[in-house]
């Protein structure tokens, strides 16, 4: 267990750096709207969705209706449906931890657990759990600290809400550098740009997710064949 714990901690260190900073930003922004530590702790523990938590601040401050909140949550977090589908086999035998693993599957956690490859002596299912738990601890710690600091030190919150976009870009760059086949990234970028032009910035997210899923489903066969050829050539 200790080897698995150490491996999970090492793998999530880059996420810790990002989550502490982003959590601080969220906490500061939340406090600037008049919400205290209790709100920060509850949102980061029960919602635990960085981009949606940033959006929720404005929804709370603006007195949005439950229907508006539900629709906005669907649009912002629809991508997690597709993450979940790709992790069905990985999480299949995780037992009692499965509900939490599903809940805690953020973009960054997905980036460190999606490969499924762990060193010898590391329990894969426990690795999933520890990595997910560490990441949420980082996020909660950053959020609560940010709220506390925001109540003591005055901050200019201009531009803080862009921090999640910056993190997504970093994750994409890292996955681009780590992977040999860039087809998924290019498909995602292309479909998103097309949907942005057609549907506009407020309504393009769900069409983009559907379009990306359809395109990658059609390209799955050729991509798998190309990967098998490259693997065979590497072995030879």
- Mean of all residue-level pLDDT scores: 82
Number of helices: 11
**Uncertain segments:** none
**Beta fraction:** under 5%
Helix proportion range: over 70%
Tell me about the largest β-sheet. none
Describe what this molecule looks like in 3D.
The protein is mostly helical and 236 residues long. The chain is built from 11 helices and no strands. Helix 1 runs parallel beside helix 3 (50-61). The mean pLDDT is 82.
Condensed summary:
This protein has 236 residues and is mainly α. The chain has eleven helices and no strands.
Topology at a glance:
Elements: H1 2-32, H2 37-47, H3 50-61, H4 66-77, H5 79-86, H6 98-103, H7 107-113, H8 124-152, H9 163-178, H10 183-199, H11 205-235
Identify the notable features of this structure and list them briefly.
236 residues; mainly alpha; 0% strand
